[in-house]
Amino acid sequence: MVISIVSSSLSFFLLKGLLETKNRKIGPIIAIFFYLNCIFLITYIFMNYLSGDGINDAILFHLKFGIKGFGVNEYIFPFILFIFLNLILLISFKTFINSLSSNTTKTTKQKIVSIFVLLISFIFNPFYQDIFLLFSSANSNVKIDNNFFYEQDNITNKNEKNIIFIYLEQIERTYLNNDIFPNLTPNLSRLDKKSISFTDIDSPRATNWTIAGMAASQCGIPLLTPIASENSMSGIDKFIPLANCIGDILSEQNYQLHYIGGSDLDFAGKGNFYKSHGFEHVEGWYELEDIINDKNYRSPWGIYDDELLNIIYNRAEKLNNKNINFGLFSLTLDTHHPNGYISKSCKNNKYQDGSNPILNSVHCVDELIGRFMDTYLDSKIYDETILVLLSDHLALKNTATNMLKKGDRKNLFMIFDKSTKPQYINSYGNVFDVGPTVMGFLGLNTDGLGLGRNLITSKSLSETHDIDFVISLNKRKILDLWSFPSIDDGFKILNNENKILFGERFINYPALIILNSTNEVDQIMFDFYYANPLINKVKNLGKNINYVWIDKCSKIYSYKNLNEIDNPSENCLLIQDSKNIKFKITSTKDKKINSNLIKEYFNDE
Questions:
Q1: How high is the pLDDT of residue 264?
Q2: Residue 112 half-sphere exposure toward CB, CA atoms < 13 A
């Protein structure tokens, strides 16, 4: 990135006077090449600031699913700067073209050097590398090795213990390294010795953001989405519904499952994830605001951790008193990058001189977790409950990133089980292994889950294979876990709710439903922040495509170059065959669309 920035800056000046008068026509081509490269570089720098890892699966995921609930305060200035720099580039475009053909005459050697520097800026631009890595395996035709993907039926429970999962926002094991962070986490370090602690847990591809870390640790899969179908999952009712996750297994074992998080459930689809996998009670900021002491006491992300941990403990105590099997999953917030937040109850406990905000936040949460765990370990809850403390993912770019890079960065993964002797387990593993390992402590006869393995009874795939390559091999299988609604029994359109019902499943509309050769749903696309409306996606469909498009009548009639109907605000359904010869437009006003009505237009007669 640094090389690309330096070479781009140099080429801006070195390219002046590059062209002779007779070659001025190629000036705009060179300028477009230079400016696109700069825009992509600026975009990468901005995305890298957001993700801490360049343009990765997390960026793609949030572009697809939206950012509702996102704590934007820390990113207002970087976003303004991002827009400002791009505006400066656009404004200077014409001046740059003119400078390419200035009266200054360059020698052949100077021209070669200036072009070489421009090529260097292109070659080292990290934007292209990240895009290539993301999309290189998107349409892989490599045969899937199903032996990698663990699926086990007939799971039984031998001891019926309860389970509490507490994800600690971006608190990774590296923070426990006293050589790098002396006395930063005295409570977690103390608790580490009282737990079954796994010391070598990596984050493979598509696992290093919150919802991805949850899916990885609970379902044993990376959070891949169908890139080829653009925004195809943002309006789907269920979140990876065919994945077999901890919640699904515990629900089958009659556990009452709760998720408690301090942020908006809509952000990244966390609420939908838990509701899709056996959780009866799913609560975020809006569901919890009536039970907190002060509604104004919240960070940009949601409930502060001191308040949240009190809610978690009180809920655990109530569930334990009911004498039922329960699972309680939760996520803290205060240590969110880049600066973190400080709960009132530990605001005076600064780390060292207090100059590093994220370390102050980590130090504060360490104190809060210490108090919580001391109370928990002395309670009756612990007698029949296994508690897991773990990272939701490795820390993203924050005010301690340069210090974190000095360590061997691993995820936190501690299990507290009263019936098991505390110990360190140094086996190499990854976050996919968390789920099956924890279920083993619950007495469930599960040696694996998805790409995860029980680290007590088996070796992790990370130890025996290149885990990112394994992910590539299984990508199609993982994408298929999202599933799509079927049109076999037709569907009903509910105008008042903007929903399309497929039996018990639904999607939101406007929507473009792409059908495969057997008229099964292959892709579903939605408007994406108005940047790429469905009418454009319809126009760009390839040949031999059958589709159903539900949108405003005015848009559909415009696409077909037909006169507008009496009420253009109504919704219409367009059924279009692959030859673009037969089509049918019908009103969607609360009517059932029989599947035969659709299929008759797709018969090759």
A1: 85
A2: 3
Output phi, psi for 511, to 5 deg: -155, 150
pLDDT of residue 229: 45
Which segments of the chain have a pLDDT < 70? 11-14, 16-27, 49-75, 96-98, 100-107, 130-147, 152-154, 156-158, 226-235, 267-268, 528-532, 564-567, 578-582, 590-591, 595, 597-605
Residue with tokens 């207090």: 354
SS3 382: helix
Hey, what are 435's tokens?
């789920």
Distance of CA 155 to the CA centre of its chain: 29
- Amino acid residing at 125: N
3-state secondary structure string across 1-31: CHHHHHHHHHHHHHCCCCCCHHHHHHHHHHH
Neighbouring residues of 353: CB distance < 8 A, sequence distance ≥ 6: none
Report the DSSP pairing between strands 452-453 and 448-449: antiparallel
How high is the pLDDT of residue 308?
A: 96
**Residue 139: per-residue pLDDT:** 43
Where would I find the H helices in 101-244? 108-123, 126-135, 186-192, 210-219
| Cα–Cα distance, 293 to 296 (Å, whole number) | 9
* CA quadruple 529, 531, 535, 538: dihedral, nearest 10: -100
Spatial CB neighbours of 121, under 8 Å, sequence gap ≥ 6? 3, 4, 7, 8, 11, 37, 41
Q: What Rg, from alpha-carbon coordinates, does the chain have? A: 27
Domains and their CATH numbers in the chain: 2-135 (no CATH), 160-456 (3.40.720.10), 491-599 (no CATH)
Q: According to the model, what pLDDT value does residue 137 have?
A: 47
Q: Tell me, yes or no, if the pTM score tops 0.85.
A: no
